[in-house]
Amino acid sequence: MPIAVHRTFRRPGDLRRTRVRYLHVLAEDGPHAREQALCRQPMTDTRASYATVLDPMPAVPPNGLAWCPPCTGLLAYELGALRDIAATFAPTPSATTPGREMPMKALTVKQPWAWAIMNGKPIENRGWTTRHRGELAIHAGKAWALDGEDSPLVRAAWLAAGHALTDLNRRNPLFHLGQVVAVADLTGICTTRDARTDCGCGRWAFPGACHWQLADLQALPEPVPHRGAQSLWPLHPEIAGAVRAQLATQAGPDQRNAGRPARGDRPSLNPEPEIP
Ligand SMILES: [Zn+2]
User: Fold this and answer.
1) DSSP β-ladder status, 232-234 and 210-225
2) In angstroms, what is the span from residue 160 Cα to ligand 1's centroid?
3) H/E stretch holding 247
4) What is the DSSP string of 33-97?
5) Helix-strand-coil percent breakdown of the chain, rounded to 5?
6) Centroid of ligand 1 to alpha carbon of 184 (angstroms)
7) CA of residue 233 to ligand 1 center, whole Å
8) 224 CA distance to ligand 1 centroid (A)?
9) Residue pLDDT tens, the chain, 276 long
């Protein structure tokens, strides 16, 4: 538990008494442990001032004092609390201004389905829909989907990519597990869910599911490890930063798909009207 400290000038007439404004946090390690504050203010100038130690640390500084900003900042850093503090003070993103300030949303997709998305599957089937549109990080989950392994569509895509069916298993390092692998543009969601009518979403769209329509898939050259989550989840800002940095290095819109194989036979997205 950190210890609070401030300087005390004991002589009543000492003008320096009035200049003591800050309650500091005592350095507890390093060459000057217990002799100076985290902000490096000396606390042991015994000629005139004495260190007054407040232990345990008070929640509110005593009368007339305020927390020393460098000390509290450094303490927050030491405690690893900066992330929470930053989250508290970060401006609340406005729902009406999509773009940079919105946290990047991610969807966890089990392998080998995530691989299929990376290789031309333009539809993600989900039992639910969302109002979110635009940037969507694709997170390859840690779990392996046997229904994906058994899917004739996945198998056909796997063979078309020049692999052997015996390599279609979770031990194959081609299948990134527990990593953000790409960013796509979620352009719409087809909620027809009617098996009797052809909604036009193509062969990857399963009857009865909501068809999430993905476009402009950008594969990350270096997938970013991250644990997944249920539903649509916000990428941690640090992870989103690492992801965006990779997208930024992929020059220009013409180069966006440079990291993925060219697929002339990729079915085009169906621009059907979106049902909210
Ligand atoms: Zn559809």
Assistant:
1) unpaired
2) 24
3) helix 237-249
4) TTTBBTT--B---TTTEEEEEESSPPSS--TT-EE-HHHHHHHHHHHT-HHHHHHHHSPPPPTT-
5) 25, 25, 50
6) 18
7) 23
8) 30
9) 788 888 777 677 777 767 778 888 888 887 778 888 888 888 776 566 677 888 888 888 887 888 888 888 888 887 777 777 777 766 655 554 444 457 899 999 999 999 999 999 999 999 999 999 999 999 999 999 999 999 999 999 999 999 999 999 999 999 999 999 999 999 999 998 776 778 899 999 998 899 999 999 999 999 999 988 888 999 998 899 999 999 887 754 444 444 444 444 444 444 444 444
- Å from CA of 195 to ligand 1 middle: 10
Distance from residue 247's CA to the centre of ligand 1 (Å): 29
Distance 191 CA to ligand 1 centre (A): 6
| Residue 254 CA, ligand 1 centroid: distance in Å | 28
C-alpha span between 183 and 123 (Å, rounded): 14
The secondary structure of residue 119, as a DSSP letter, is: T
> Residue 196 C-alpha to ligand 1 middle, in angstroms?
12
**pTM, rounded to two decimals:** 0.56
All structural domains of the chain: 4-88 (no CATH), 105-255 (2.30.130.30)
